[in-house]
Amino acid sequence: MTIYNQNQEKNTVIISLRRHSYNDQGILNEKGIQAARETGNQIKNFDGIIKYESSLSQRAQETAKYIAEGAEAGQFSCSTDSRLYPFTQKDEQGIKDRVKTEGRETFLDNLINRKTDYHDTLYATASQSVLSYLNDLVTDNPPQVNKRIECISHDFVLHSSLIEILERNGISIDHIIQLGGPSKEMVKKTSRTIYPYSSTEK
Q1: Strand pairing partners for 12?
Q2: Of 65, 70, 108, 120, whose CB is crowded by the most CB atoms within 10 A?
Q3: Which residue in 67, 95, 90 sits closest to 154, CA to CA?
Q4: CA 71 to CA 160: how far, in whole Å?
Q5: Which CATH architecture describes the domain 2-194?
Q6: For residue 92, what is the enclosing H or E element?
Q7: Are 174 and 113 in contact (CB under 8 A)?
Q8: Average model confidence (pLDDT) for the chain?
């Protein structure tokens, strides 16, 4: 998911939210490292500042590290923010159990449609947390210079946030397949661009 914030002089802040890369038990595997480096290679010619932020999880921070490596960033620095994944390890295990029971696609459909109280609470926690983060990020990074901020989060958290942003812009999504399906790819083929970003509450 990519958000643009542009001023009249055409300086642009690009906020890119990505899923962490492939991992085994929370640590990036070789496939994940290579995928992150390839993503970095795609942005290395960006004419401006590139910053990196991630959730507190190891797999997200490692993804940011290898994206920066692929982008030939030189000295690497990554800020962390718990709002990019506002869940505990206990919460995460419960989510994994749900995904296993419901099936990945059904779980995501249930999530974005807030089918039960559990799904509704999970959706609200994820989307409100990330939108709060985005509001602060947009406010703190006015388009005075060209800047790109790579934000590494987690699959269903990004799905929830994207659905919320789309709904606030009058776009209704009923099934996860409309977003490209429950792909585990770090960069989805059907990624959407939202411009301008609206922080207006419902």
Answers
A1: 6
A2: 108
A3: 95
A4: 28
A5: 3-Layer(aba) Sandwich (3.40)
A6: helix 89-102
A7: yes
A8: 86
Say if residue 97's pLDDT is above 80. Answer: yes
Residue 56 contacts residue 133 (beta carbons within 8 Å): no
The residues that bridge with 148 in the sheet, in sequence order, are 14, 50
- Better-predicted residue by pLDDT, 143 or 185: 143
**Residue appearing with tokens 């990004």:** 158
Instruction: Indicate if the pLDDT at residue 180 is higher than 90.
Output: no
What are the DSSP calls for 128-175, one per residue? HHHHHHHHHHHHHS-TTS-EEEEEEE-HHHHHHHHHHHHHHTT----S
- Summarize pLDDT for 105-159 with one digit per residue, the tens: 999 999 999 999 999 999 999 999 999 999 999 889 988 899 999 999 998 999 8
Torsion of CA 88, 97, 127, 56, to 10 degrees: 30
For 141, other C-beta atoms within 10 Å of its C-beta total: 16
> End-to-end CA distance of the chain, in Å?
21
Query: Two tokens at 32?
Result: 């994940």
- How big is the CA angle at 43 (ends 41 and 49), to the nearest 5 degrees? 130
Q: Which helix (H) or strand (E) holds 2?
A: strand 2-6
Where do the structural domains in the chain lie, given as residue ranges?
2-194
Q: In sequence order, what are the residues at sequence separation of 6 or more whose Cβ sits closer than 8 angstroms to the Cβ of residue 5? A: 12, 13, 15, 138, 141, 142, 143, 196, 197
